[in-house]
Amino acid sequence: MTTPKIVYTLTDEAPALATYSLLPVVSSFTKAAEVEVVTSDISLAARVLASFPEHLSEEQRVADTLAELGELTKRPEANIIKLPNISASIPQLKACIQELQSQGYAIPNYVDEPKTDEEKDIQARYAKVLGSAVNPVLRQGNSDRRAPPAVKAYARKFPHSMGKWSKASRSHADYMREGDFFSSEQSITMDAAGDVRIEFVNQAGAVEVKKTLALQEGEVFDSMFMSAKALDAFFERTLQECKEDGVMWSLHVKATMMKVSHPIVFGHAVRTFFKEVFDQYGDLFNELGVNPNNGMASVYDKIKTLPQSKQDEIEEAIHACYEHRPEMAMVDSVKGITNLHIPSDVIVDASMPAMIRTSGQMWGRDGKQKDVKAVMPESTYARIYQEMINFCKTNGAFDPTTCGSVPNVGLMAMKAEEYGSHDKTFEMKEDGIMRVVKADGTVLMQHNVEKGDIWRACQTKDAAIKDWVKLAVNRARQSNTTAIFWLDAERAHDRELRKKVEVYLQEHDTNGLDIRVMGYNRAIRTSMERMIRGKDTISVTGNVLRDYLTDLFPIMELGTSAKMLSIVPMLAGGGMYETGAGGSAPKHVQQVLQENHLRWDSLGEFLAIAVSLDELGQKNNNARARILGQALDQATGKLLENNKSPSRKVGELDNRGSHFYLALYWAEALAAQTEDAALASKLKPVAQALQENEAKILEELSQVQGQPADLGGYYHLDQAKANQVMRPSVTLNSILDSLK
Amino acid sequence: MTTPKIVYTLTDEAPALATYSLLPVVSSFTKAAEVEVVTSDISLAARVLASFPEHLSEEQRVADTLAELGELTKRPEANIIKLPNISASIPQLKACIQELQSQGYAIPNYVDEPKTDEEKDIQARYAKVLGSAVNPVLRQGNSDRRAPPAVKAYARKFPHSMGKWSKASRSHADYMREGDFFSSEQSITMDAAGDVRIEFVNQAGAVEVKKTLALQEGEVFDSMFMSAKALDAFFERTLQECKEDGVMWSLHVKATMMKVSHPIVFGHAVRTFFKEVFDQYGDLFNELGVNPNNGMASVYDKIKTLPQSKQDEIEEAIHACYEHRPEMAMVDSVKGITNLHIPSDVIVDASMPAMIRTSGQMWGRDGKQKDVKAVMPESTYARIYQEMINFCKTNGAFDPTTCGSVPNVGLMAMKAEEYGSHDKTFEMKEDGIMRVVKADGTVLMQHNVEKGDIWRACQTKDAAIKDWVKLAVNRARQSNTTAIFWLDAERAHDRELRKKVEVYLQEHDTNGLDIRVMGYNRAIRTSMERMIRGKDTISVTGNVLRDYLTDLFPIMELGTSAKMLSIVPMLAGGGMYETGAGGSAPKHVQQVLQENHLRWDSLGEFLAIAVSLDELGQKNNNARARILGQALDQATGKLLENNKSPSRKVGELDNRGSHFYLALYWAEALAAQTEDAALASKLKPVAQALQENEAKILEELSQVQGQPADLGGYYHLDQAKANQVMRPSVTLNSILDSLK
């Protein structure tokens, strides 16, 4: 057996920069446990370079580390710490290419409209680098997210603000009572592997195959549709009710995740709210290429080509709608950006927790907080928000100083439950029948649809479900916590899953565990009842609820979802520890370039490393690795408690100073532990040296701040320069070196 | 074995009068099944006469029928139809005595302040007749209440009005979060029979025995207290919140049932709302004998003796309170009667369903419906109303045309769970300790109390619980309906009951039944979820919830609780069938005396007789009795469907006409049934005769209306005269006679 390894990913921007400072600390400490920390560069620049080996010199060539990492995820020893990376847009990619070229890498330019075969080949290679290219390769498992004890302790000690709830609040969630995906959902489990066709049959009987899919044995396959008429009627009703009740109107969808279905839903809301405008100028808007699915921004953008008088006329018509419609929630009341401006501004999993945290209110045009009707067409998920709103009206806002936690075990592996994603979602162009047909012609499911209806299908593989159940049982056991499977007996898809869960639960030792299966309303209610009594409850959910709940509960408990421990226990047995829900923070890098202050908070990395060490220790019977991990958790706790996280202001403690304190507390914790006397005595002098040199090290770290820093690049840093910038304390460096 | 008998009680006022018309119909029909219907006079007059045999002549003497009936309840063959009777106040008793004396009964006068031994003896005998003297003797069992199918069908066909709920309603229930009975409740189960003492120990250590009770083995005994300080703080908070939120304030207690504790609670509300008035005029009010527990009416009443200028001053001070307090819900906005006027005006089990049925609103001073904070200090029960309010906000008002039913099986036998009744409830006169002590000095429970706190204890006998569980299982089996025991694991008393229920359920065959045990919130939520899906759910509850729920759900489902079938299956095996939740209706008798129109609706009697016949048939293998009962239910259904209930207006169909239709439909149903051909052929001519003479009979019945009627008495009717008034149709009488 080889030395157990932790793979630490090198990514982009702030987290990558912070790694120059953090990794030396980590490597020094882990060496003591004979744990090797290796790096894997999956930055945008590395991925670009790996795509064009033949354009590069021998020395310039880099391996396809992402592919290698993808292979590693299929091996049980995988232990990967995954930092946030750039999901590159085309402008970002072009900037990266330009930088690499300027550094002497002879890679080709990006071609917007390729013509030659060569150009087409180049574009195809770049296409693989664009967008969300990393997660699909690495996320080979389900999801396990929880608040680490140190973070929870911090929230209890330094609670975030929570808006008081009035028992007389008028706020509520509203959702469709008929005609939505929930009402029409059908679900089957494949008794044998086989192809299915998704077909549309028009009223003349013509059959169009929209898609053919190869399904596995035991795979759960769903289909459902949302009626466009019912959706429009629903929006109109909510607007009327808001007008009558004097309550502000707001829309909450997830256009980013449900990439195809939810922009269409959003478009219906736009057309309903501004009905008179679209009635009057519909033809003109079509000519101009206005797309209501892109929000009112699209209208304002496209009408710019019109004469000013026509623009004024349309804007007056828009204004007239505002006059007779209820007040609408604002995204930015200062800039006049409403809830219907662009579809990606208001994302339900972020907007609803924010609303609930803010006394159930949102901001009106006058910049004041107001009670609101939160309109969420899909009743499947909207009900949980209404349940929480009712709960807050009854019991008041959650109290971060006393409340329990709701960690999540989410079904995600093998693209499980990817609703509304682009390849199986269709907007109906005419009336007819949508059906799912087996290769032999057997019709498995069918729906009568009308023009404009949104039909979608969804796959969930048996192996993913099986693993999810195992993960839930393991998590319940390891955390010694009640676990609730959120599966609604009234929902077709969930009925199929309930059957499987029942079977798969029997494959595990659940003795002494409290594992329950409930519908969503009861599940969230039970979790909240336990939460306000200080008890933890694991939510074991499908993919969408995973996404929603890992924001909802953390925001109540911790004020943010960024501090959650986010683990992907891989199907093959390995583990990936994800960090930084906040993205790769380009603004932070700008601040370093301008004034050499890095405000990136490496808390997510601290937490991930600790759990990675613990996992590695468990798997390899390496007690020392576990001790290291536990000590790191203690150090993180102390760091939070003493408020040694980076400040936003130049001259104050930054990312590097925070890492010094982590090293200090980690060394102290290791020196103080009694399980491993040899380790303790090894760390004692380090702890002492760090204590004694605290002032000196801080001085060395802070004196570099305030002037521009040279990193030798943005996408592809000069390693020597970056090292110099990120490790300015000779004293700290030499103490760390003493551990090697 | 003797002929099975149904005992039909003769009581007072309208129901007694209606019996003159109804009973001949019933007796004629039951004779056909060899079922004897006998009467038992438990009217106030009969009970008075039975108390003074030595004052009466031989012929005038009557038996103590109530005592006889009490004895009958202890025998398995008991089958009693109990109509509403007068719970006599002293003025009513005096009027009754005077009437009897005028009829030649030489009974003694009531003596308000007895001096001689003879007078004391007289007063003692009259005391036994006063107040609620009948129910405690007859209610020897638990309670079984449900909506009969005919009534449910009527409600579905002719739904009562239900106020629409706004999702943005501000209405809510509010209750104490600490310091109430729920928070302090302690409960024990006696492992052996024995005496316990309720003692108060003051701060000097002096022990006062407040009460000694002989407890049975297995009896559950609870104690609890409500903190006066917490109660005042709670009222003040609710008032502040209403003021801030602009929501109307209302109080909902049950001063009539919780006779001792809740008037005190009410008094605290009065003193908090009108704090400045009581602060300023407290001493004066004490002198005058103002008792805030009797409401503001007591203030207005007592200050009448003051000079006008002083009265004006006090009224101004009261007015000033109204100015700075939130708006208060009105009992009668026209007369200016507020929620705090007298404690018996607003009774939670009636006021809350009314509020929920009225869009969650109550009436303000301006006579307009408004959203309201429903203040109910006891969190034990208030939570169910908040749950229903949240449910209505989310799902809209209940729909009587589709909703399911929530019948009740209530724990009531052997004075179970009589909370706040007078003999075990105490208002603390000073700080100290209240404790429950066994004869050997062992302290079973104790509470630190402060002056003003309300301490109370409660008994629940094992035999009653055992019977209640049996009744629940039987009801679940007979109705083939899911049953939920409402027992809250977080409540001390309920934890004791849960243990017993678990054990006693095993004594029954529950195979194939769906019997669940839940806390109140989940129980009501589950029941409501099922209800809106058209499903029935039996609520199996303690005594207070029995009282509350048998109003709450019927009012949603049927618009009234008066149409419920109300059965007391006696511990000894017999049954009592109670009718008429609406009391004995003195106003109805006035109308008869003035214009010979009786608007009393005998629906409750029809339902009770049917179930009494069915029960008797089952017990005695008398198929014909069961057929009679089933036919009566059909007849009742048809009567409701054809709207042949009594009208309120003279000249229209009254109680007697309604009885004609009952006879007609009953005869038709019996003639049409095929189970018993002999019975059918016997009834066929009766049905035909009634059909043919419909117009004639109605004419005979209606022509007597419009002029005064002579009944020869009010409390003690002249039987011949009453017969003449109530049976004016010669044609109907002779058709009925033909059955004998």
TrEMBL record, chains A, B:
Its EC number is 1.1.1.42. It catalyses: D-threo-isocitrate + NADP(+) = 2-oxoglutarate + CO2 + NADPH. Keywords: Glyoxylate bypass, Magnesium, Metal-binding, NADP, Oxidoreductase, Tricarboxylic acid cycle. One of its GO terms (molecular function) is isocitrate dehydrogenase (NADP+) activity. Coiled coil: none annotated. Its cofactor is Mg(2+). InterPro entries: Isocitrate_DH_NADP_mono. It holds the Pfam family IDH. It comes from the Bacteria. Belongs to the monomeric-type IDH family. PANTHER family: ISOCITRATE DEHYDROGENASE (NADP(+)), ISOCITRATE DEHYDROGENASE [NADP]. This is Isocitrate dehydrogenase [NADP]. It comes from Marinospirillum alkalitolerans.
